[in-house]
Every structure is written in structure tokens, then in C-alpha cells.
């Protein structure tokens, strides 16, 4: 006897969201890879560009990353070796280490903005600004609910 799971609008929306997110993340990974970066590295650079000019603490960066990073210290280590970021000890509290973007990191990140914008335009063809804002609102609400349920 075959059992079926009843289809609901919420379930179908969830499946569509997961499927779309997977395809979109794959596109972004390929874009960044073609420019010598990972999706995670680009995300960290983006956070540093828009963050505190004095730098950001690793724990704060970890919380703001789009994807969970199990070891942000190793990520920063790799990016520091590549000349994309630098660490700096706090002047008032030497225990605090801040991560700052280097001019090379900023150049690499910003050089990708046009390609990223084209990618996003191709991912939401025909969607109006109003529709995109409503989609963002719905997804942020779903994110908050999921975090609250942890």
C-alpha cells in the first residue's frame, strides 16, 4: 500500500525555496570560483567592507556570515596568507583581535559587484522591486521563526 504525504502550500513553498536556494548558491559558488574566491571568502570580504573600519571581531563575523563557518579562525588564516585580510590587536585591550580588509581584498571584492548584480538579475527575472521586497520580508520572517524554534 502506497502512502502519500499530503501536499500543502507551506510544504510546496519550502521545497521550492530549498531547491531555488541550492541552485542559486551553486551559481554563486561558480562565479566566485572563477575569480579565485570561495562563496565564504566573498561573504567575509563583503562583511568587512560594510563593517567597522577599525575591523571586526571573529565572533561577530561568525554570527553575520550567510553560511555557518565551523572554524572562522582558519578561514581568516587562509585569507590573511592570500593578502585579503589582516589581523590587528586592540589598542585598549590586547586580547581583542580585529580582522580588517586589505586594499587587495577590497579591490577583489568590489571588482565582483557588477558580476554579482548580473547574477542576481538573472536569478529573479521579471520580479519587480515591490515583489522582491515582499519576498525578502517573507523569508526574513521564516528565518526568524526557524531560529526561534532552535
* Estimated radius of gyration: 19 Å
Class by alpha and beta content? mainly alpha
**Series of H and E elements:** HHEHHEEHHH
Task: Output the CATH topology of the domain at 20-122.
Answer: Arc Repressor Mutant, subunit A
CATH architecture of the domain at 20-122: Orthogonal Bundle
The top-level CATH class of the domain at 20-122 is Mainly Alpha
Unreliable stretches (pLDDT < 50, length at least 5) are none
* Major β-sheet strand ordering: 1-3-2
Roughly how much helix do the residues carry, as a percent range?
55-70%
Count of runs of 4 or more consecutive helical residues: 7
- The overall average pLDDT, rounded, is 92
Portion in beta strands: 5-15%
| Largest sheet report | 3 strands, antiparallel
N-to-C CA distance: 35 Å
What does this structure look like?
Helix 1 (9-33) packs antiparallel against helix 6 and helix 2 (39-50) crosses helix 5 (103-111). Strands 1-3-2 form a three-stranded antiparallel β-sheet. It has 150 residues and is mainly α. The chain is 63% helix and 8% strand. It is globular. The protein has a domain at 20-122: Winged helix-like DNA-binding domain superfamily/Winged helix DNA-binding domain (Arc Repressor Mutant, subunit A, Orthogonal Bundle), CATH 1.10.10.10. The mean pLDDT is 92. 15% of the residues are buried. The protein has helices spanning 9-33, 39-50, 58-64, 72-81, 103-111, 113-123, 129-148, and strands at 56-57, 85-89, 97-101. The protein starts with 8 loop residues before the first helix and ends with a helix. The chain is built from seven helices and three strands, in the order ααβααββααα.
